[in-house]
């Protein structure tokens, strides 16, 4: 019986090649996308679950009750104390990012951005797969490090890494261990592990045993049966008992499960890779809708074919086939088609996984020998089989000529109504996603326009290197010499014809300064305020105005010829409103906690100092009084970016011959600010393209069967004088009506969705009406292109052939 069913299934596939090509191709495309999404979601939800003691591992964190912020780092001094005083802690480990060390391998020197300084317990507490050497190096207090297999290849090529010598800054070290690459779903991805004692000896790190210096990740393994909340209370009491800093502070310690770190929303700032539960939900929803669209195509085609299988089903029933046999025959046919789709799915996943990893910065892998992969594939196979096969199988097994003549299906639902409803659902998804893509693209254009005051691809920044002996202090002579050194460095840069402008900033960025702070300003002629007035403070030099393209609305900019300007400030329009300053604002005096008094000399037009996700904050611009700004912003002459980089590189070699030169363009910073938004846009664009493809396949299949069912009618109309245009209009008009219905349904849904997305931006566009018009027209064009091809074929066919059997 089963063998006969498979034979019949293969005959059906080869007999109706076009229809099965549509079904199998559509399913394969959607299932491959769904599989990729499932792999990604599984990776996101299982972060850090690979550690054998994951259920007992917690990151020590501190919640500041006054600020409502959770910090992921802790004092190293606390780690040393807790190990001895909290019996509930079975094992503790500490690690610090420290700074980016300079690695010297032979004659090559570079900053290593993925290093971690670890204590002796770190590799014992967290799981690393050792391949060569031993992790005992961290207990032996020697100058040996551990690196991943990828780093070993990067540093030493095909040579054996074990025992090789390199330099970390000025310290000679050897490779004492090589471990397998860290899984991509790990919160601690640093693949160069350096003993902490090397950091503590370095002049770059100031280890004073302070409990207020949160510079370490502290991971605790609690004893079985320990209540994390109780342990956290005991740790808080120890903090307060050991250091006066915590006695009156509104703060307490929390233990965050390591397995929750990736999706934890409480941290105010994090160096750990973070995920987003909303993004996971959106991906899951889009994947489900895409798969459902392909399944709708399959069901639509199967229901349509049921009307053409009357003779076959009738013969089988006369021959004694039962409903059960017909049901399993149809299920077998569909199962074979889905199995072929699964083979194509596996092929496409293998082909497109590298592209997926590159786009979403993941390291997912695919293996048919992985049990989780096999389970995921079986799950998708079963879901698709149920969604696509049960209803058509019930319909065909209950088919009767009388029902067909009435246009009724086995489940008492009109076949035409069902097919139209399913097609409308597909078009609703396609039109809704077109609207979403157009609105998001409009928002991105708006975001780009906000930074159009300067050419972001011609402005780059680098950070001057501070001498080692000044990192934690320094004599007056040393400080003065370094200040003069920075001034000379800027002058030499400006002497290059390839450089248009240079400004020096005591900050981090031109476009990413989001954090306001309490600066303690009081304004002359205004009563003191009860609440702290927070603002973003930028310490800049005189040339910042032109390079950042700021516009002075009132007053003036800082004047080199006016020495008193070192105490004066320029504020933005938001600061004027927030601080309640009245006209004339220029000339308002201020006092900053008694150590500085000055005057507001200018009001700058509001500018975006951070992402458009956050509102513009009050901004106070002041001259860098100490001249110690280390961040240099360089604007290249048009078309001479490469020459400008070479010029800066040559000057860098003169001043810092032992340090690598690193820089970053402003457009790279800009892209990083909106990286997650661009991922959403790429996903929506991909899903929109695929939904349009699947919808066109569905319309094509409907048009094929519609034309086949009406072949005699078309022949009679042609004999009676109907033109090709009349026939095409007859067959296409119904699809246009369905597209209009879909547009009416999709528009309010898409409007709600894009409004919700735009709420993530403090500054956003008005939703354009033309996005809906274009989406509606696109839906109509889609159905016309998909249906008219088959309609034209039917209209140009010889009516004699269609009527010869009548």
Molecular structure report:
With 806 residues, this protein is α+β, with helices and mostly antiparallel strands. Helix content is 49%, strand content 17%. It has 23 helices and 27 strands. The longest helix has 38 residues, at 323-360. Mean pLDDT is 81; it is low at 404-413.
Count the strands?
A: 27
| Percent helix range | 40-55%
Largest sheet: 15 strands, mixed
Q: Please compute the radius of gyration using only Cα atoms.
A: 34 Å
- Low-pLDDT sequence parts: 404-413
Report the sheet-strand fraction: 15-25%
Structural class: alpha+beta
Oligomer: single chain
Task: Give me some keywords for this one.
alpha+beta, single chain, 806 residues
